[in-house]
Structures are given as structure tokens and as C-alpha cells.
Batch of 3 targets.
Target 1
Amino acid sequence: LWDHLVALRDELGLDGRVELMGSRNSDEIVAALGVADAFVITPTQTEDGDRDGIPNVLVEPMACGLPVVTTTAGGITELVEHDGNGLLCDPEDVGAIARAVETVIADPDLRRRLGATARRTVEWDYDLNSAAERHETIYSAGAHTSMQREVAAR
């Protein structure tokens, strides 16, 4: 869609304001996230029902401590809590999305709060060590409960 996107950008008079970066390696992506104020992605559900689950492209900026503006499409609400670790909008409400972007850009305190909470969310939900500890606790509690039942049955 590269040619289509370039043509659309130019048709909308956004040449010089919107830079289409193209393919980048992971170091370049991390560097770009490091200087960004926010991350915006606006998934929607297609007419045939196709939609994203929880896009990795949303988890990555949150891990970098960026506030996100996104939509309620697919499984995103399992990751993003409105005004907790990001701002959520209806996928079809372009005005609300624009207002959310404007709000997060205009308010540095909000950006810091949402970004810090976003980082903690990813650390808690997506960090391998944290997940392993939670699973160990769950399995240990389950095994302990099973042993208690077995002893009580005797």
C-alpha cells in the first residue's frame, strides 16, 4: 500500500507534515519510540468481522513508557484501560480519536502518568519472570489445596 499511502498523504496536503518511514529494524524502532510523546494506533473491525487481538505493536510502546491512544476494537481493552494506561476511543469516532490525541499531546502530566502506568502494565502482564512467578503461585496454591483435600478425605 506504499504508493497508495504516499498519494493519500499528498492529496490531503500533508507532505512535509507526515513522514512515512517505511520498514525499520528494531534498534531504529526503539530509538523512535524513545523520542515520541505518544503512540497512536486505531484498529477497527472489517466488514467481514476480521480484527486484531492484542497487537504487539501496541505492547512495545507501552513497554517503553509511552502513553497510547487506541480503539476498543478486538482484544485491545484486555490491555488498555481508558485513562489508566492509555486513552480508548470507539473505532468509528474519528472526532473522539482526534480529541484524545490532542489531549495527550497537550498535557505532559497526563502523558507521564499514562506512560508510567503503561510500562507497569507490560512489566506485570508480559514480563517472563513476573508471569512465571504468578504461574508458580497459582500452581503451588492449587497443589496445596489438592493436598489439603486429600488429607481431609483420610
Note: Residues 8 and 14 are 9 Å apart (CA to CA).
Target 2
Amino acid sequence: DYIIMTQINNSINGVNIEMILDDEEIFKVKTLNALNKNDELKNFVMIKSTHKFCSVDFTIINTYNLLSVYVEHKKKKITALNYNTFFIGFQKLNMIEAYYGQQKLFLVFDCDDDLYFCEYDNKFLKREKKIICGSKVIEINKSECGMGFDDFNKKLIETLTL
């Protein structure tokens, strides 16, 4: 994982505190802040999986109505404008289908230029497989994806509210 050093503006006894946040933690903080920004009751919680081999990274829950959504976050060190597709491991999708197939789940590709997202669909498993670096992958065309963090946040709110 790529790691960023971020200085926190808060201090304890006048001493600034520095924290190391990885890409997933940065994504979590940004997403949770955006969700709760327009919710005066701060009903949204976001839980990061602690298991290294979990098939998804996050569960987001609206504590008001208990609606939830899962998120698989992929940090891509690319400028996606230069590409037409994203690749995701076929085995990962099999595990997602086995454990979360009936749940709302978003695949998020967090690229250097923007954030791209799509809702998981078990039809992905029926797509043609390719082999990259010895592993089976499927392609997700960028045109199937929503784009931008604000649009992703709107989609989450739409999914998590009645």
C-alpha cells in the first residue's frame, strides 16, 4: 500500500500529532466526512475490514435505518483518462459473489486523476476472462462506471436512504 504522512491540526498540550494514513484510511475518512456532512444526525458509519484477505474493504451503514452497502476499494496509480478499462481479479469476484452476492456492493477504482465506481453485478462472472501476470481477470469498461467522488457520494446516499 502507498502511505502518506499527514499532519493533524489538532494538538495535545500544544504538540502537533502526526499520523500515517494509508490509501484506504484516507478514502474512509473522506467518504465518511462527505456522508455525514449533510446529515445533521451523523447517521453514517464506515467499518474497515481487519482481515487481510477479506473480499471487500468496507461496510457503510446508515444507523438510522440499518441499510448498508459494501465497498471494494482499489487504489490505482494511473491516470485513468489514458485507459478504457479497469481489470479486477476473477477470484476476487468469485469470493464477492460467494459472500456478498445478494448485497449492494460498489467496486471503486481510485485513480490519480479521479474516482471511478460501478455497482457489482454477478454478470461480471460470465464475462470473458483474460490472463494478466498469471491470474484470471475480467475487464470493466470505463463507460460502465460513474465518475467523481461527489457522484459516488450521491450514489451512496441514494442507496443508504429510504
Note: The longest strand covers residues 3-12.
Target 3
Amino acid sequence: MSEQRRSYEEYRTHYPARKLARRLGWFSIGLGLAEVLLPQQLSAALGVHGRGGFVRLCGLREIATGAGLLLTDNPKPWIQARVAGDVLDLLALGAAGQRGDATTAMVAAVGVTGVAALDLKCAKDLASEDHPVTTFDYSDRSGFPDTPDQMRGRAASEGSMKNLPQVKGMGAADRETVDRH
């Protein structure tokens, strides 16, 4: 008759998502600085000349979300702000493609879509922290089939290593690769 395991609910931090959030924060700051310092060049590269002011505003938004991601213990709202910014960027690039060079705007939209996919994955993974995980308590287990006192000396009393068959070379490698299920 097996004993019922104690279980409890706990919230777990999703460390890979938090690491990705920090990297996206640094990316935001870098992109934002480029947009703030070189707005005319970036708007020309996107095929929408004369929109430097709008590019500079987007840069300020990027710097704000990047700083928020790097300075907080709760990156969830800042990642959601990045996702919202990605939607705005895609809408702006769509409008720019209709007014200017559609090919250039399409290439930029593909880049924004790739970053948006990372932002969405990060937001989804961070949202998993809000759901408790059932954890079972195995603290009463030692890993041995009997108590340590009963196990003490058992290996020596059941024979020595000299009596075991020694497998060498490819036979040993084959033995290790056999599926034991």
C-alpha cells in the first residue's frame, strides 16, 4: 500500500523568460538610442523621408520600455508595452509602405515581426509565472530501498568487484547504448 504524497502549490519564476526580457531591454535601449540620435537617417532608410520626429518619438518609447525592463523586478508590464509598441510599429510601417517605398517598408516590417515574435514568446512565458504548479514532497526519501543501517556493508557482503564480468571495448559501449525500457 503506497503512502499518499503531500503536495502543495507554488509559483515558479521562469528564469529563461526573465533573461530574455533583460536582453530585450538592452535591445530596446540600443534601438531607441539609434532612433533618437539618427531619426532622419532611419526614416530615409525606411523610405519615409521627413518623418524624423515620429521616429524620435518611437525611440523615446523604446528607451522607456528598455529601462523599465532593466530596472524592475516585474518585467511583465514592460514586455506587454513592447508588444503594444510592436503593433504600433507594424501599423506605422504599413501606412509608410502605402505612402512611400513599399519594398523597404516590407523589409522593415519583417524585422519588426521577428522581434515581435520574441516579445510575444517572452510575454507568454512570463505569464506562466501567474499559474501555480503542484509540487510533491519527497523529503522523506533517501534513495535507498532500505534504511542506511540496513544497507551498510551490503555491497561488500554480496561479493566483490572481481566476481563481476568485465566488459571492455565495443562491448562496453554497446551495453551503454542499449535501450533499457
Note: The mean pLDDT is 84.
